[in-house]
Design goal:
CATH architecture of the largest domain: Orthogonal Bundle
Strand order of the largest sheet: 3-5-4
Largest sheet: 3 strands, antiparallel
Number of helices: 9
Structural class: alpha+beta
CATH topology of the largest domain: Arc Repressor Mutant, subunit A
Distance between the termini: 55 Å
Length: 183
């Protein structure tokens, strides 16, 4: 017996269309007043619909949530006009600091500086202000320095479902992100 969930699927689609951030099934259930099972079936129906060749969008799973976004195959054509306006405003230093944090988290400011070889205060402040990193706690060493890690906004910005989806580093690149004396 096939369930007919056209209206429920349309409601979930409308919610995803209106939301700027990814929503998990629980949030979709609360917003729509539909059961989690119905939400799950509606998401499957949308995935099937968007998988068709005549659809320019897809469901993207980002940071444990779901959102509607352009299909990856069209992004090169769209990003100049619709991409993040501040994407190109990140300096090489900011991107380097962000990548060190992403691949080495949780990590302290002094550990970032040891890897980069220069002060990181300004870059860390910038990345905190942009919401791409956050304080994740304090390291259990004398002085209890703050540790930093990436945020859900980071995942959204780089279109990743989880941090595990970051590109794998080769051995040389991996060595670059390690502090001397650590493995």
């Amino acid at each position: 017996m096939e369930l007919r969930l056209e209206k429920e699927t349309a409601l979930i689609e409308a919610i995803l269309y209106l939301e700027a951030d990814p929503l998990d099934e629980g949030a979709l259930s609360r917003i729509s007043a539909l059961s989690r099972e119905v939400v799950k079936l509606a998401l499957e129906a949308l995935e099937n619909r968007y998988a068709q060749e005549d659809s320019g969008v897809e469901l993207s799973r980002i940071g444990g949530g779901v959102m509607i976004s352009p299909k990856k195959e069209y992004w090169d054509n769209l990003k100049e006009r619709y991409g993040k306006k501040n994407e190109s405003k990140f300096s090489k230093a900011a991107l380097e600091t962000l990548s060190i944090i992403a691949y080495s988290q949780p990590i302290t400011r002094s550990e970032v500086e040891a890897i980069r070889g220069v002060q990181a205060d300004t870059m860390i402040r910038l990345l905190l202000d942009k919401g791409l990193i956050r304080e994740t706690g304090k390291k259990d060493v004398p002085g209890k320095p703050l540790q930093y890690g990436t945020t859900r906004e980071f995942l959204k910005f780089f279109r990743l479902e989880t941090i595990a989806d970051l590109p794998k580093l080769n051995e040389k690149e991996s060595d670059r992100f390690e502090l001397d004396g650590q493995s």
